[in-house]
What does this fold into?
Amino acid sequence: MIDALRTQDSGDTAITPIATAPAAATTPDAPGAPLFDVSTLDLAAVEVAVRRAAADEIMPRFRQLAAEDIVEKNGPHDLVTVADRRAEEHLTAALTDLLPGSLVVGEEAVHADPRVLDALHGDAPVWIVDPVDGTRQFVHGDPGFATLVALAHRGEVLASWTYAPALGLMAVARRGAGAQLNGVPLRAGSPSAGAVLDVATSHYDFTTDDQKRVLAALETGGIAPRPCGSAGLEYLHIARGEIDATAFSWENAWDHAAGLLLVHEAGGASGTVAGEPFRIEGDNALPFTAARDTATARRILGLLAAAN
It folds into this structure.
């Protein structure tokens, strides 16, 4: 699972501080069994595969979609395009070639067959793929979309790639080894003392009335909540210190795995309203937050937990 906080402080709080472990650490669910050693994987080759999928399948269709290229999945706000499907197929083939024996949990594959999610509970390394995160933005010609890829093993996210092809941004994180954006190290930092916190929240088009009620707890002094765009890019904004936190009420692994690792490796923190680490396998207490630092995460979770 994702570490609750990437910090060494201690105290009686709703979030349990847990230090980041090395990639070869064992897990409570599989004592004595090492995680996949991500240092044996050619991370540069993964980046090439992500860039190629975007270049071949996504960018040629950006602002070029025909009506028949766009389909509603679960309503008018939940869209899928031919670019999503083709990019996921491209990545599935490329990533499993790079790591024989690995499996892929992709957004579109899960939509077609929810049993694909079972791979997150297995022993094989798993690629978690969102081919176009921010499909609504993509459909409307907005460059604020991204391709998200994460590599996980037994519930631990080991590496991630967040690529915004229309913006020219590639963020890469490796567990215990930091995060970079276009080759430059990322540090989330902390909000300035007394500053109003900029918080991206679940978009109202995708929330229930009860979720809206809980998220409304952030409409208070010193916090400026706003609906999120691409979740992957909101995580990148935190890792860059451009926004202060998120508050999300859904838990799809493909939306969050890459970004949570990115934030943690940039020095940030995360946790759920139950004071537990976020589990990519699901069954989390929601909402949850990711933030630039521990204090901000605690503040956001305190407000959400009180309203939950």
